[in-house]
Fold this protein.
Amino acid sequence: MTLEQLIHQYIAYRKSLGEKFKTNETNLKNFCRYVGPGTSIGSVTEDIINDFLYGDSETITSGWFVMHTSLLGFFRYAINRNYIITIPLPSDLPKRPEPFTPYIYSKEELKTIFDLALTYQTNKSFVEPYMIRSILILTYALGLRIHETLSIKLEDIDLDNRVITIKKSKFYKARLVPFSMQLAQIVAEYLCWRKSKNYLQYETSYCFIGKNNNPFNIGTMRGIFQRLRAKANIKRTDNSTFQPRIHDLRHTFAVHRLTTWYKENKDVQQLLPILSTYLGHTNLAHTSVYLSMTNTLLNEANIKFEKYAIGEKL
């Protein structure tokens, strides 16, 4: 069987299980083009795979391991169906790069970004500054992924009960996200502004609209945020490869919430599963990483532990 035929078969199989399989599909199709669609699956060697994985780069990134995992799943599928005898992947893996550390914005930095959203534009365009500010505030205040924010429809917003339904989550499960009275006022004001601008008011209309009444484009939003961040002069000073991102608003929300709980002497370990559910995590470990993310958070945890150690009432 040719490589192309088996890859298409494997992709169809994984999608039949309910997986979106987008990243793996892209990686496998790139591999197929690299090796040649008509290549026999049995003629793929470890040298060929190494050439594909490493390319001309001498730097090993997390993307290397993502591609390796994509290929490993495919070749396991092939060997289990007797298309090959051995898996031609390298047995010795390179050292993994240091884990990526999200940037945690300070309250002052957040305020600067939100304020600049209204004034940063030098030329008028279809992008409404007030809408940009509302997107950023909602993303931070609810700890959302940016694609979740941009996927919100008018029917998803329940102002009376102060809850938003998030339908297009990372793990395909809808969740209810409650919000405060203060945020309810911000959302209500935005919806009034949106109506005054004559945007579509159908229940199925997207809350945030881009050009030609289309849903706001996530790439456009990321580009705008990077310009705002640069204008605010917010940047890393720790020699990190990546500068602060819009997705770090979500990480910032989680760390700020945990820090507040520590300051309020709340039982953080008991509240952690609640935060995990609120964020839409499928594994508590994904939320636990926030417990050691900043010096401020660690300091608050240490203070609480010291009080516990000396028997002081919390």
